[in-house]
Design a protein that fits this description.
Elements (H helix, E strand, L loop, with lengths): L10 H8 L10 E6 L3 H10 L8 E6 L9 H6 L6 E3 L4 E2 L4 E4 L4 E6 L2 E6 L9 H13 L4 E4 L8 H9 L3 E5 L8 H8 L5 E3 L4 H11 L12 H18 L8 H14 L5 H10 L1 H11 L10 H18 L3 E9 L5 H17 L4 E10 L2 H9 L1 E3 L8 H7 E3 L3 E4 L1 H4 L2 E5 L11 E6 L8 H14 E9 L12 E5 L4 E4 L12 H4 L21 H16 L2 E5 L5 E5 L17 H4 L5 H14 L3 E10 L2 E11 L10 E7 L19 H94 L3 E5 L5 E4 L30 H11 L3 E6 L5 E10 L5 E10 L1 H23 L3 E6 L4 E4 L1 H7 L3 H4 L10 E3 L12 H8 L3 E9 L7 E11 L5 E11 L4
Parallel strand pairs: 1-2, 1-8, 2-5, 3-5, 8-9, 9-10, 11-12, 11-17, 12-16, 17-18
Antiparallel strand pairs: 4-7, 6-7, 13-15, 14-15, 18-20, 19-20, 21-22, 21-25, 23-24, 24-25, 26-27, 26-30, 28-29, 29-30, 31-32, 31-36, 33-34, 34-35, 35-36
Helix pairs in contact: 4-5, 7-9, 8-10, 8-11, 10-11, 12-13
Length: 993
């Protein structure tokens, strides 16, 4: 065994080695996907990777499972880094190159590569997608995917997962790739961060890693300076795109900004802000970066199965009579989840076969207009086989060479439209609302506003379908859980809403608390004279104004000013804010009289010197009751003011000494009268209380009516909101219709130009033979103008001499058998008129299509040919010698009259017969037999040369007299020199010699 020669390292290599990650540190992993023609690209890539780069390079290639490759040996010649084929549970190390083995799938977990046996048949294997998805899940934002030369679209779905996690995507320029299928697929899907020739990609990856550090170096929180720069970026985005990202999670936004900074090799966010100000195009790219639509068919399959088995059957069961189910897919991206919902619905209908006729109407919306356009096309790469079962592919897709297209029955159930869920009105009366992995990018403040909006949009019992990392959180009073693991929830009916819903227009607010557009310092408010006066008035009222309460006409307290504890106290029993129940001893009786008098007389009433009981003593009080007459909104309210007197007394004012000379009987009489008056007043008060109870009952009825009116008002408000939502739906449908009209207009223009370019007059008639469409060329034959569309063809003047045109068209409609005739025009032109049924895509006959092909030149040639033929026949018959025309096989085609005379056989007897069939006996001039094979006709057939001057005698079978002829044969050739026919002439002579 030979000893390896040590390799000398340059100073630069030693420096690079010193800068590599220490053991135990995070090792960046570069995943490379390639296919056909990938060896050359891989060699160029590795040539430009320095030996001590500090990275691990993992190569995933499409390899023949039965062929033992030598890829490891080929790549080892290019680089000094160790190149090895991956073994199961192999830990990745810096400065190493790893190559996937044949017939294996590969994943990565915590920096360890794991191998799995491939279970899918050849043609459905997507090892690059499989590894890229695994790398995105394991490395998150530190994952880096590279796509080099290759056929197909393997890797595109994996790159989408990397983009979702915030990783970097580098793609070889298709112009430099031997096979551009894989690079072009990644670019067309808008996933590439950098597109460059393969030899430039390593340097760009190193620059990206330098400016976008790995997880171990990234700060966990946003510093104040970075937050300030982030706010400015949000302002620039809002100014150019009109979309406010201030309520999106700051860390998520900053991570996306860091990616763009790494791509442009910008270290500070303040420099990136200046870069944005000078490059509006970068703002659009950053906007696209923030809108990365990460989606897929049947993402989280268990959740879709739960939707299929639990939610949709319940909704169908609740509507036994059938109807239209409405669904809204929020943040649909390129449409995979909307189409998945439509397919699941179709599967449920096919399995349950409900009695009613059910249809599904899906509104799929997203902020990204480009994603919406892709969703409308419904075309997806071939590698969706990793997510869609073969049964669904066969049932719901149409396949071509490069893609799968959604079938028409699925496409027609969905309306795609741009929509901003935090700015535009919502869709309403929904049975299913799908909002998956959108809320995770939003702050809690915005989520709290969206959940009531979703609750409002759903019908009672409607289902909410969230992403795997989302939940209703504190909104459990709005939604009950159906399946918490699969994030399926049902709307809880709330009855009449107690609080108004914040519609999207109320979500948007000025940038606040660190997102203001002006200076970072708060603006100091100045106090105006009016504000100063108001503040002083409040201080004076608080310190010097008497205590007062404001009540309604029944005495229920509405407002209290000042300290009223000396005059009012809570009554025992059920809590009440009625002033008569709360009045202290000595105040209740007189207050009742004053209150009713003020209401009845509509004037101010005052009682002075009232003695009321306080805590352990008495207090003299003046009470004033005043009924408000203005302003209007306070009419009917009563204000009661309590004013303490300066002197206090322990005895009531009426307990004064009596004048001298009065006796005790007089005093007793007065006391009896006073008691009687009090009893009467007490009776009156009781009667008034009874009246008050009756009025209270009436008032309750009025309140009930008022509540009904309020409920009606709320219903009207709800109807208004629903009309706003309906208007949004109409706008969405209108936008979809405009898109279809645009497509239809383009197709119409293409068809019009195609028909006109054929220069064939074409006329389209409906099933009643009214003009539907015609080409420009048709107007030269039939006098048609644009206003003739819709008129019967029988009412239009034509140069064509074809009176039976309408009858033939009706016959074609009836029999469905096309008609073809030739007709002339008044100026001598000839047309071939072909009438065919007009068949729609639904295989329904909806009129006829008539084409008029100009055959004037062909007709002219035909007439000329006929004239030539007549001249030929005249000359042929007039010749004084017998002439026979034979085909290439020697059979008689035609003879003239002279030939009939001299052969004594008719044209019918000679036609189609060969020379041997005539049973002639041929003799020479000396009487010997003349061999048939030496007949001039047969010689000419064999040699393709003319034969002349041959004398022979002919004896007829009937033993008639021998006839002598001088015979010649003249062959005629076609354009290619092949024998076409032979003319044979017979000149009768008396005898040879």
């Amino acid at each position: 065994m030979t000893k390896a020669t040590p390799v000398r390292r340059s100073k630069k290599e030693l420096e690079e080695k010193a800068s590599r990650p220490a053991q135990g540190q995070f090792v960046p992993v570069i995943g490379i996907g390639s296919s056909a023609g990938g060896l050359e690209a891989l060699e160029l890539f590795l040539k430009n990777v320095p030996p001590y780069c500090g990275m691990a390079i993992v190569i995933v290639q499409h390899m023949d499972p039965t062929h033992k490759g030598i890829m490891v040996e080929l790549l080892q010649r290019i680089t000094t880094m160790p190149v090895s084929q991956v073994i199961d549970r192999q830990k990745v190390e810096a400065d190493h190159v790893y190559l996937i083995p044949p017939n294996q799938d590969m994943t990565i977990l915590h920096g360890v590569l794991h191998l799995l046996d491939m279970v899918k048949p050849r043609g459905l294997r997507l090892p690059i997608d499989f590894f890229f998805r695994s790398m995105a899940d394991d490395l998150q934002q530190d994952s880096i995917g590279v796509i080099l030369s290759g056929m197909g679209s393997d890797g595109t779905l994996g790159l989408r997962a990397i983009k979702e996690k915030g990783g970097g995507v580098f793609v070889q320029d298709p112009a430099s790739a031997k096979f551009d299928g894989m690079p072009r697929s990644a670019i067309d899907e808008g996933l590439a961060d950098v597109v460059a020739p393969v030899e430039e990609l390593p340097a760009k990856i190193f620059a990206y890693l330098k400016h976008f550090p790995v997880s171990s170096k990234r700060p966990k929180t946003l510093e104040e300076r970075a937050l300030t720069g982030l706010e400015k970026v949000v302002i620039l985005l809002r100014a150019q795109t009109g979309h406010d990202f201030s309520l999106y999670k700051k860390n998520t936004i900053y991570r996306r900004i860091e990616r763009r900074m790494g791509i442009h090799q910008i270290d500070k966010i303040t420099d990136y802000v200046r870069y944005l100000q000078g490059n509006p195009q970068e703002i659009e790219l950053l906007f696209k970066e923030l809108l990365i639509g990460v989606t897929g068919f049947f993402r989280d399959p268990d959740a879709w199965d739960a939707l299929k088995t639990q939610i949709i059957p319940q909704i169908l069961a609740a509507r036994s009579g059938g109807g239209v189910l409405r669904a809204w897919v929020v943040g649909c991206s390129t449409g995979e989840e909307a189409y998945s919902l439509a397919m699941v619905f179709r599967d449920v209908i096919a399995s349950l076969k409900p009695a009613g006729n059910f249809k599904l109407q899906i509104f799929a919306t997203d902020l990204d207009k480009d994603a919406i356009e892709k969703a409308r096309l419904g075309t997806y790469p071939l590698n969706i086989t990793a997510d869609v079962s073969p049964e669904r592919l066969k049932k719901y897709f149409e396949k071509d060479d490069r893609s799968y297209r959604i079938s028409r029955e699925i496409r027609e159930t969905i309306v795609f439209a741009p929509h901003n869920v935090i700015m535009d009105p919502p869709f309403t009366k929904l049975d299913i609302l799908v909002c998956r992995n959108l809320l995770i990018y939003m702050e809690q403040e915005l989520q709290k506003k969206l959940f009531p909006l979703f609750h409002y949009s759903l019908n009672s019992g409607g289902a909410l379908f969230l992403g795997s990392a989302e939940t209703v959180g504190p909104n459990g009073h709005l939604f009950e859980t159906i399946d918490n693991k699969q994030r399926l929830f049902r709307k809880i009916y709330q009855g009449i809403r107690q609080e108004p819903i914040d519609f999207p227009a109320a979500f948007i607010h000025p940038l606040k608390a660190g997102l203001t557009e002006g200076s970072d310092r708060p603006v100091k408010m100045t106090i105006s004279e009016q504000n100063l006066q108001g503040i002083i008035d409040q201080i004076l009222l608080k310190r010097f104004a008497p205590a007062a309460v404001v009540t309604n006409e029944k005495g229920d307290i509405i407002y209290i000013s000042g300290r009223t504890g000396k005059y009012l106290e809570p009554a025992a029993g059920k809590a009440s804010l009625n002033i008569f129940a709360m009045a202290r001893e000595g105040l209740r009786y007189d207050l009742n009289i004053l209150f009713n008098s003020a209401i009845r007389q509509k004037t101010e009433m005052t009682k002075t010197g009232l003695t009321i009981g306080t805590n352990g003593g008495t207090q003299l009080v003046d009470v004033t009751v005043n009924l408000f007459d203005e302003p209007d909104f306070m009419k009917g309210l009563v204000m009661i003011v309590f004013s303490d007197l300066a002197k206090k007394s322990s005895a009531p004012p009426h307990a004064q000494a009596t004048p001298a000379g009065k006796d005790d009987s007089r005093l007793a009489s007065l006391q009896d009268e006073l008691k009687q008056a009090k009893d009467e007043l007490l009776t009156i008060r009781e009667e008034m209380q009874t009246s008050q109870e009756e009025l209270k009952s009436t008032n309750e009825e009025m309140q009930s009516a008022n509540e009904e009116l309020q409920s009606t008002n709320e219903e009207l408000t709800t109807s208004k909101e629903e009309m706003q939502s309906l208007n949004e739906e109409l706008q969405t449908v209108n936008q979809e219709l405009q898109s279809k009209v645009s497509d239809l207009s383009q197709v119409n223009n293409d068809m019009k130009n195609l028909l006109n370019s054929t220069d064939i007059a074409t006329l389209f008639l409906d099933d009643e033979l009214n003009v539907r469409r015609f080409t420009t060329r048709t107007a030269t034959l039939i006098k048609l103008i644009a206003s003739d569309i819709g008129r019967p063809i029988t009412d239009i003047v034509t140069d064509l001499n074809y009176p039976a045109l309408a009858d033939d068209a009706r016959e074609v409609l009836h029999s469905l058998v096309y008609s073809e005739k030739q007709a002339a025009t008044s100026d001598g032109r000839w047309y071939n008129v072909k009438i065919m049924p007009y068949r729609t895509q639904e295989n329904r006959i909806d009129g006829v299509v008539i084409t008029f092909t100009d055959v004037s030149i062909a007709k002219k040639y035909e007439q000329s040919l006929r004239g030539s033929e007549e001249n030929f026949r005249c000359l042929f018959e007039a010749m004084p010698v017998g002439v026979m025309l034979h085909d290439a096989e020697g059979k008689t085609v035609m003879v003239n009259r002279e030939a009939e005379r001299i052969t004594k056989m008719s044209m019918e007897e000679l036609q189609g017969k060969a020379l041997a069939e005539l049973r002639w006996k041929l003799v020479r001039g000396d009487g010997s037999d003349f061999p048939v094979e030496e007949h001039p006709l047969l010689l000419a057939l064999r040699t393709n040369q003319p034969v002349s001057g041959v004398v022979m005698g002919v004896e007829q079978p009937a033993g008639q007299q021998r006839q002598w002829f001088k015979v010649a044969a003249m062959p005629q050739k076609d354009e290619e020199g092949k024998l076409k026919q032979v003319y044979t002439t017979y000149i009768e002579i008396i005898e040879p010699g």
